Structures are given as C-alpha cells and as structure tokens.
Amino acid sequence: MAGPWDAVLRDEAALRQAAVVAVDAALLEGVLMRTDAEPNASEVVSYAPFTLLPSAVPRALFEQAYAVQRDFNLLVDAISRDKEFLERTLASTIKVDDFTARLFKIHQQVLEEGLAQSVFLGINRSDYMFDCGAGSLPALKQIEINTIAASFGGLASRTAAVHGRVLRVLGKPEEAARLLPNDPARGLAMGIAKAWELYGSPSAVVMFLVEEAQRNIFDQRCVENELWDRNIRVIRRRFRDVYEQGSLDGSRRLYNWEARLLLERSRAVKCPDIATQLAGTKKVQQELSCPGTLEKLLPGHAEAVKRIRATFAGLYSLDVGEEGDQIAATAIASPERFVLKPQREGGGNNLYGEELRQVLERIKDSPERTSYILMDKIEPQPAVNYLLRARSPLKASKCISELGIFGVYVRQGTELVLNEAAGHLLRTKAVEHADGGVAAGVAVLDTPYLV
Ligand code: ADP
Ligand code: MG
C-alpha cells in the first residue's frame, strides 16, 4: 500500500535535518518527560519519545472510533452500577487473582456501608488497532478500554503542533494544515471541573493521586493547568501521603490497599471509583463479548450496542469447563493467532507466541488459567517511520499504531449530566515489540494523518 510519505522517506538527508527541528519543536511545545535518572525533579528534562512523521490512519475508522466513544462511556457507567454483573463476571477470577480480589473486596465493603457520594466522574480511553488480518479492508478492533491510568491526554494536546512543524520543514505545508486539532487536556479538565462543581463547595480541591516515580508529570500538568485556569485548586498526593494523613492502621504490605479503601469510603468524587476500575478489567471485557451481555447492560440502546459490538475482536474465557478446554487446546496448537492476558494494566504483561504456548501448557489443567483471558491477535499493516528517542540513533523502523479515544462523563445520582468524546491519542511502536506503551519505553507519541 502506498503511504503519504513515500517520497519524503527516500530523502534521508532531509529527514535528518527535520529530526533536529522536530526535537526542538517538541521541547518548545512542551512534549516533555522527566528522565529515568531523575524521575522526581524537573531540573533536567527531555522530550517524550515521538514519531518523526505522523502516521496514516484510515479516516473512516478514525470517525468510527469517535462515533462509538459515547456509547462506551454509557457502557462503562452501566457496568459500574451493576453489582450483580460485576459479581457474576468476576466470580471465577477473584478466586485465583489476588489483585482483582482485593479490589472486589473494597467494592463490596463500600456498597455494604453505603456510598458516600452520588456524583461519579469517569475518564476512560478506548484503544484500537486497525486489523488487516481478516479481509482486504482494515477494520477497527478494540484492544481494551482503560478506566484507570488513561494517560497522555496532556501531551497528546501538544503533539500535532510538532508534526505540523516537521511536515512544513519537509515541504508538505498542505498536509501540515490537514492535521486535526486535538485537545484532550481540555476535554478531560472539563469533566473534572463539572464533577468539582457538582461536589458543591468552592473550597474543594482536585487531588491527583500520583505514583512514587513521576516521570510523566508534564502530561498531568497540562490537565492541572486547565483546572487552575478555571480557578479550581489542584493538589498532588502519592498513595503514601494519603495513607499517612489518614488514621488507618495496617501492615506495610497492605498500606496501598488501605489507602485505596480510605479514598473509596470518603465523600470525594472518585475517578475512577472502585466499581468503574473493576469495569475496566480484562475479564469484564471478555464477558462483554458474550452473546446477549451488551443487550442486557444497555437495554433500549440497540444502535449503541451495534456500534460497540462492531469493534470487538474475538475474546475467550478460560474458565474451567469444556469451552475453556477447547480454546486452550486451540491456542496451544496455534499460539501465533492469540494474545494471553492476565488481569493487569500498564503494558508488558501479555503473552504471545511460544511463551503463550508454554504458559498455557503449564496451567491448562489448573484453576490458575481462569486468571487469564484469550484474545484474537490483531494484525495491523506496518508502515515505515522514525522513532525519536533521546540518545537513540536515527533509523527507519517498521511500525504499527494504536489509536486511543478519550471519553469523559459525569453522573449525578441516576442522571448522566455529561457524556463526551474528549480527544485522541495515537501511539506507535516498532513491530518487534508485541507489548508495551509509552510509559514502558516501547511506544512513542504520534499524530494521525487521515487518509
Ligand atoms: P495493558 O493493560 O497492559 O495496556 P493491553 O490489552 O492494552 O494491556 O495490551 C498491551 C499491548 O499489547 C497493547 O498496547 C497492544 O500493543 C498489544 N496487544 C494487546 N492485545 C492485542 C491483540 N489482541 N492483538 C495485537 N496486539 C495486542
Ligand atoms: Mg493498554
């Protein structure tokens, strides 16, 4: 397939020059990250890795992804409110997966006690690849929906300007002008501001719960600044700070869980609340693909159900039983067709190919297999690009891209008062990496160029 940059890619000298401009543009625009060596100081920072060229994205699939985002917001919200669904869907998983079990326990505890807040804020990011495996035309297939750690809305707001500069330097001003505006930082802040307003106290603050190592602080600052501009105060706290300023006891091993419980029991508007976090598990994703599940969760929304289902790839339960036995045997025989996923977030946990086969072979007769799901492997068409990373030599790579659409919604009681698509994120990585995002150092930021 001919790409939009075929001619440009033949002129290596021009690309080298453009790469120098690109890095400076990234620094100027604020596409920044702290360094690995100093994740908690901003004295010396670098640019977040990004592609030299924007990547071609089929316009129809891009529009399809936007069009289904509000449906997905509705769906996540419906799942988070459906105690029985979560209980039934996660029953087998929590028997063998300690992490999910702990989340679930908090969920049950707060429900028993009664929820302290009736305002709910959801920020999610639905991720897709363009599958070329089955037919001649690429199809939009969902990788997963993130209801927690839906990052890079801030830096994505600044990446298109960098790619616009690069295209102009490379003699492509018309193409530069066609890059879409994108401002998820603003869209996400709008949702947070709405929740803040409904909380109903002018002295309320928005707390960003942050990790110990804060390399990605500039991404978060983009959203923070949008809130400050609306005169909403923002504070940043680590789990440890929450725990220490609370009054709960617990062993060290437990303290993160204690902090999570403490937050969950508070009157704060949580994002995500524990039920919404559970709604984002891989097991729930797999259950959604079963016949009838979407219809039950979204009664009266036949069109939304159709749009959502069109994005699903094949997903399979490994629950104990005949169906699970069968799919496990199929995956062991043809591991290259599947991805094996545990109940974790953040990249680097999935299993592919020979490793998938070995792990499945080992756990196929044990209940442990229930802690995983199987998914059809999506096969995007690779394209050549240059991945710009500090201290990496400039070289052409065969790359694949993953498109994320941000969604934001606010519910007060039973009424959805806001439901929007809030912008997009394109991440690209070299084909040799099966797994991993930008934070894991594998994927880099990109801008879609619609074709
Ligand atoms: P995580 O919660 O770790 O982000 P994901 O489901 O997003 O888990 O998977 C991580 C990465 O693995 C994705 O960004 C994508 O690159 C790759 N991946 C996941 N599922 C598939 C799939 N079905 N086909 C091809 N690649 C996949
Ligand atoms: Mg992911």
Q: Brief overview, please?
A:
It catalyses: gamma-L-glutamyl-L-cysteine + glycine + ATP = glutathione + ADP + phosphate + H(+). The chain is an alpha+beta fold and 451 residues long.
Written overview of the protein:
With 451 residues, this protein is α+β, with helices and mostly antiparallel strands. Helices cover 43% and strands 22% of the residues. The chain has 18 helices and 16 strands. The strands form five sheets. Strands 3, 5, 6, 12, 13, 14 and 15 form a seven-stranded antiparallel sheet that branches. The structure holds adenosine-5'-diphosphate and magnesium ion (MG). The site of magnesium ion has 3 residues, from strand 6.
Computed over alpha carbons, the radius of gyration is: 22 Å
Task: Summarize the amount of helix as a percent range.
Answer: 40-55%
Mean pLDDT, as a whole number?
94
The hetero molecules present are: adenosine-5'-diphosphate, magnesium ion
Q: Low-confidence stretches at least 5 residues in length (pLDDT < 50)?
A: 248-254
Cofactor: Mg(2+)
Binding site for Mg(2+): 144, 146, 345
Family: Belongs to the eukaryotic GSH synthase family.
Domain Glutathione synthase substrate-binding: 204-254, 256-279
Structure characteristics:
single chain; 451 residues; seven-stranded antiparallel β-sheet; globular; binds adenosine-5'-diphosphate; binds magnesium ion; glutathione synthase activity; metal-binding; ligase
Question: What order do the helices and strands come in, and which of them pair?
Answer:
Layout: H1 6-9, H2 12-29, E1 32-34, E2 45-47, E3 50-51, E4 55-57, H3 59-67, H4 69-80, H5 83-96, H6 98-113, E5 119-131, E6 139-146, H7 153-169, H8 173-178, H9 184-199, E7 206-210, H10 217-229, E8 234-238, H11 239-245, H12 255-265, H13 274-279, H14 282-288, H15 293-297, H16 302-309, E9 315-317, H17 322-333, E10 338-342, H18 353-363, E11 372-376, E12 383-388, E13 396-412, E14 415-430, E15 444-446, E16 448-450
This protein binds adenosine-5'-diphosphate and magnesium ion.
